[in-house]
Amino acid sequence: MKLFVTMRNHAKGDTFRELIEMWDESNYIVIEDSHDRFCWTGDGVGDVLMYEYARFDFLPKTWNKGLFSNTQAWNVPIGKNHPWIFWSRHPRKLESKIKDGIISFDDRDTKSIFLGKIENPIQYENRMTHDWSTCIEEFSMPVAIGNVYEYPYTQDEYLNKVSRSRYGLVLPGYGPKCNREIEYFGLGTVPIYTKGCGLDYYDKLEEGVHYFYASSPDEVAAIVTTSVLHNGKRCQRMVEIGMSETVLVKAHTKQQKESWSQYDYSCSDGVET
Which structural domain range is residue 145 located in? Predict the structure, then answer.
């Protein structure tokens, strides 16, 4: 399968472009230069758009079919558009951490976690609707708009903390999705989604199977308390499902190669063949 994409001028070791490198190294794809900022497949530039950006800050003038990773283009009057996969901030590190082994739900020593920051006004608006610190055991969300902020953890330390938590709070970021929830899924940390977070994926997520939903800090606290006391087996199953069944993790594994065949890159109405 060919991907038409320009890899120069993009940071290595970061999000989708690192994932492309991993696909290339595994011989899942052949890369040709697209001479623009977007990633394409199918018949080349202008055909199937693989849109990686959080919002519609950048859009090409036209495309035939769009696969949108974050903000969904349901109302964009161009092409036939579909939800797609998403990825972690550092796919190589996440894959390495997964290979180290996943801690069972009962053996995790942190009940709930959210480690992030606010670095732009859109994130501030999306994440300050409630005081989420009141319901999360390990919580850090400094406001660093316009400031240089040194994150207190390395990526390895962050992933280790996530891997030891039973639940992870999901808040919207610059777009409706964040790399954080992919890291939750990959490491078996049960996500608790909140209002404004993106749930559109090629493989659909099911509430109570892949994630919980809460509309307030009180509801988050109730989920954590009730599930820890009475629902451990169910949550362990959610850990296993999150690791094995969702397209979120397939993006980092050999299963991705098999999943390419599920896409119909013609301009028909469906994505699946």
Answer: 91-250
